[in-house]
């Protein structure tokens, strides 16, 4: 059965939260607690490499929605394994008995910055794809035209062990050889024009169906690429502007990229006023339990003052 055959004329207005996590955390517990008001279900992918992950802790936090564990992938930062984990999340939610109106891709370091009812009401009235998109600039061409080796790819935060230093050196040499010899992978003329943006998104049911029906193409496009999770969704959806309208509000995530690093800055109390002033519905990334508690206390006080 094709995914599109599962669609009904009028989707029910329940929503799905798709969580990419690799460890138990105070932030993950609070994310679930705040969003679990009976209007959404939770689909959780835990990195297959995660050690000591307590599933009972997560299951105990979900009280009003349903919880589904997704078959795990061993995820490496910046590699196609992240795309596979996302596709498994989308597929698990789309195959559920419930037909969800929106699918929210989040991490275990995210928090809502508005009340759950306000967030769900917003998407009940929406139909756009909420995802960040930008043209594939020349600086990003190496991500898809050079062949990257997954086990050589390391996040910037990787510890500078002798093994990691060798892997970084090996990656630079391998990519340098390809550039020198002109061994660039051609983007097939049959494929959509590449577009990139943020990994995180909130997508309506029809957009998720399109991604799932294009899984074979997606896997070919992202093979041996770098950070393909930041391009495959945009590339597929932007190829059909007559069907999928991308919201000018982008992904509705507050993320601070001002550090000009390969990863966003951690949320601190210095961000709180900017988050309050934004139109965003979620924020990331929260690394500190103390910051999580301070942020939630601030928002609970604001909610009381509004009553």
What is the number of strand segments?
Answer: 11
Q: Please tell me how large the radius of gyration is.
A: 20 Å
Proportion in β-strands: 5-15%
Q: What's the pLDDT, averaged over the residues? A: 91
Q: Which regions have little confidence, pLDDT < 50, spanning 5+ residues?
A: 1-12
Query: What structural class is derived from the secondary structure elements?
Result: alpha/beta
- What strand order characterises the main sheet? 3-2-1-4-9-6
Q: What is the 3D form?
A: globular
Q: Which percent bin holds the helix content?
A: 25-40%
Order of helices and strands: EHEHEHEEHEEHHEEHHHEHEH
Span between termini: 49 Å
Structure report:
There is one protein chain. This protein is of the alpha/beta class and 307 residues long. The protein has 11 helices and 11 strands. The protein has helices spanning 26-35, 55-61, 80-94, 116-124, 141-145, 162-181, 205-213, 215-222, 232-238, 272-277, 289-306, and strands at residues 15-21, 40-46, 67-69, 102-107, 110-112, 130-131, 134-135, 195-196, 201-204, 253-254, 282-284. The strands form 3 sheets. A 6-stranded mixed beta sheet has the order 3-2-1-4-9-6, sandwiched between helices. A 3-stranded mixed beta sheet has the order 5-11-10. The chain has a two-stranded antiparallel sheet with strand order 7-8. Helix 3 crosses helix 7. The longest helix is centred in the middle third of the chain and has 20 residues, at 162-181. It is globular. The N and C termini lie far apart (49 Å).
């Amino acid at each position: 059965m094709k995914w599109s055959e599962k669609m009904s004329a009028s989707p029910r207005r329940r929503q799905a939260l798709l969580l990419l996590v690799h460890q138990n955390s105070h932030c993950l517990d609070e994310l679930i607690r705040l969003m679990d008001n009976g209007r959404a279900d939770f689909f959780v992918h835990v990195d297959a490499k995660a050690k000591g992950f307590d599933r009972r802790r997560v299951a105990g936090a979900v009280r009003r929605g349903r919880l589904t564990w997704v078959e795990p992938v061993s995820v490496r930062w910046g590699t196609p394994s992240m795309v596979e984990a996302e596709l498994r999340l989308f597929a698990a939610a789309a195959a559920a008995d419930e037909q969800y109106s929106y699918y929210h891709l989040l991490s275990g370091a995210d928090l809502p910055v508005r009340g759950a009812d306000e967030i769900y009401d917003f998407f009940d009235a929406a139909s756009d794809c909420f995802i960040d998109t930008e043209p594939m600039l020349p600086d990003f061409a190496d991500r898809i035209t050079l062949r990257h080796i997954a086990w050589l790819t390391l996040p910037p935060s990787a510890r500078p062990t002798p093994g990691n230093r060798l892997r970084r050196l090996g990656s630079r040499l391998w990519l340098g050889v390809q550039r020198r010899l002109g061994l660039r992978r051609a983007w097939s003329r049959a494929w959509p024009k590449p577009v990139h943006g943020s990994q995180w998104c909130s997508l309506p049911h029809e957009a998720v169906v399109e991604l799932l029906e294009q899984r074979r193409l997606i896997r070919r496009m992202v093979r041996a690429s770098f950070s393909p999770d930041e391009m495959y969704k945009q590339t597929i959806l932007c190829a059909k502007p007559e069907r999928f309208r991308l919201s000018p509000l982008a992904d509705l995530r507050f993320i601070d990229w001002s550090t000009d690093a390969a990863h966003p800055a951690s949320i601190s109390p210095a961000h709180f006023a900017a988050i309050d002033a934004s139109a965003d519905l979620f924020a990331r990334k929260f690394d500190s339990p103390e910051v999580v508690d301070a942020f939630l206390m601030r928002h609970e006080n604001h909610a009381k003052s509004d009553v």
